Amino acid sequence: MSLPGKWHPVRAELDGQPAPELALERMEFHLTATTYAVHFGGEAYDCGTFTHTETTIHLTAQKGPHAGRVITAIYQLAGDRLRICYGLDGTAPAEFKTAPNSARYLVTYRRHTI
Q1: CA–CA separation, 60 vs 5, rounded Å?
Q2: The whole model's pTM is what?
Q3: Which residues contact 102 (CB under 8 A, 6 or more apart)?
Q4: 10 and 32 Cβ atoms separated by less than 8 Å
C-alpha cells in the first residue's frame, strides 16, 4: 500500500482537543507521489510538496497558512488507514499523541475508495 490517494479524516485532535465533526466532514487530504493538498469544502486550502521515509514525512507548504514552512510529521499506514502526527512547531513528534500547548496535530485518515 502506498501514500498517494484521497484521504478523509475520521478522527483528529489539536493540542489535546478533538476537532469539530463539521471540520472533519468538510476536509480531504490529497496525496500524489510528491505533492499534497488539503481541501475544505472542495477548495484547496493548503498545498505543497512532500518527501517521506518509512516513518517520517516532511511537508513543504507553498500555498495557504503554512506557506514557506516545512512541517515534519510521523506517520503509520495500515490498510485503508493513515495516521499522521504533525509537529506544527517545526519539530518532529516522537509519538502519536497530543497534549495542551504541544503544537501537535494528530489525524487518522481513511482512504477514499471509488
Answers
A1: 18
A2: 0.93
A3: 15, 16
A4: no
SS (H, E, C) 26-64: HEEEEECCCEEEEEECCEEEEEEEEEECCCEEEEEEEEC
Predicted local confidence at residue 113, as pLDDT? 78
Q: Which of 114, 91, 71, 86 is nearest to 15 (CA)?
A: 86
CA distance 62 to 81: 26
pLDDT digits (tens, 9 = 90+) for 53-111: 999 999 999 999 999 999 999 999 999 999 999 999 989 999 999 999 999 999 999 99
pLDDT of residue 19 exceeding 80, the answer is: yes
**Which domains, from first to last, does the chain contain?**
5-111 (2.40.128.490)
* Secondary structure tally for the chain: helices H, strands E: 1, 9
68 neighbors 46 (Cβ within 8 angstroms): no
- Whether the pLDDT of residue 44 is over 70: the answer is yes
Q: Phi and psi dihedrals of 22, rounded to 5?
A: -60, -40
